[in-house]
Amino acid sequence: MSRTFFRKSFCLWDGIIATAVPVFFLLFALFSCGNVRQSFIGSFAIVGLMMTIGLSIEAIIETLKNIKGLGKVVAFITNGPEAVCLIVGLAAGDIIYAASTPLGSNLMNPVMGVAAALISGSLASAARTQPFYTITSAVLTLVLAASFFWIIQFGPAMVAGWLVLAVIVSALVFIRAPSEVDIEVEDLEIEKMWLVPALLMLMGGGYYLDDVVTFTAEASRTPKGVIGFFVLSSLTSWPEFKSALVLFRRKRPVDAMLNIIISNVTNLWLAGGGVVLWLAQQLG
Q1: Cβ(113)–Cβ(260) under 8 Å?
Q2: What is the pLDDT of residue 55?
Q3: Half-sphere exposure of 190 (CA within 13 A, CB side)
């Protein structure tokens, strides 16, 4: 049973993204006279972590798929890599770097959700699933995320105002989330005992993700801003893509949509937590 699940977990899209990441870094290394060998090694390490994170998410979803509220549960779980990157940034004393990954993911998550709907042939179903709530929530969480990088230049007082607004809007989005439908009990393709190993895989992949990306960025001489926007936010949003793809294929568009929206809300909460610590340092 478990062997069948693991074989089915890897698909064409994993292969495409596994090819795109090394190509991205190798091109940068070639054009910027970076270390091609180290860039190649680092890019494959990134791919390995990405596959580990994606596989762990699928295993978690499979073991929990017969519970109501799966969309919200998965949304919290898939924010593990963003939380780790936030902690790393705070430890380095750089609030912009700390907040950039969770807030950058608020752009990538909706993109990943639309891609998952297209690939699974569920775009029409997704469009009919609470369209006003989905579009409004996605836009609000995206605008709040992007505005942070403009507002921070005006100092702690403006950032505190942003924090209050982010808390209010994210709380309203969370409270107004539609109820998830009752589900029919399905046979599990993987034993429940895999839940704990899958959680450990997810935490391990998230823990090493930032170090590996940093190593590869330095080897390829890729600017940190480019890494954060195009690579790191995409990689940390990959679990959302994988989980949304699984949920759409199981004919659970509400769960898939909530996975994306609640993940964006959680990103705001993560960044907000980092901002609170930063404000305490600034005012202390």
Answers
A1: yes
A2: 76
A3: 25
Of 271, 266, 260, 279, the residue nearest 112 (C-alpha): 260
User: Would you give the distance in Å from CA 156 to the centre of its chain?
Assistant: 27
Count of Cβ atoms closer than 10 Å to residue 75 Cβ? 26
* Domain assignments of the chain as residue spans, ordered by start: 2-283
DSSP class of 183? -
- Which one, of 233, 207, 202, 200, lies nearest residue 88 by Cα? 207
Amino acid at 274: G
Q: CA-CA distances (angstroms) from residue 129 to 52, 123, 212? A: 30, 10, 38
Residue 69 amino acid letter: G
- Helix, strand, coil shares of the chain, percent, nearest 5, are 85, 0, 15
Task: Convert the pLDDT of each residue in 24-73 to its tens digit.
Answer: 888 989 988 899 999 989 988 888 887 777 777 777 767 766 555 555 66
pLDDT per position as a tens digit, 112-139: 899 999 988 998 888 888 899 999 999 9
For the CA atoms of 163, 223, 20, 242, the dihedral, rounded to the nearest 10 degrees, stands at -20
Q: Which of 105, 114, 97, 176 is nearest to 141 (CA)?
A: 105
User: Quick check: 282 and 163 in contact, CB under 8 A?
Assistant: no
Count Cβ atoms below 10 Å from residue 243 Cβ, excluding itself. Answer: 29
Structural tokens at position 37: 């060998």
Q: Which of 265, 271, 234 is nearest to 149 (CA)?
A: 271
**CB-CB contact of 76 with 56 (8 Å):** no
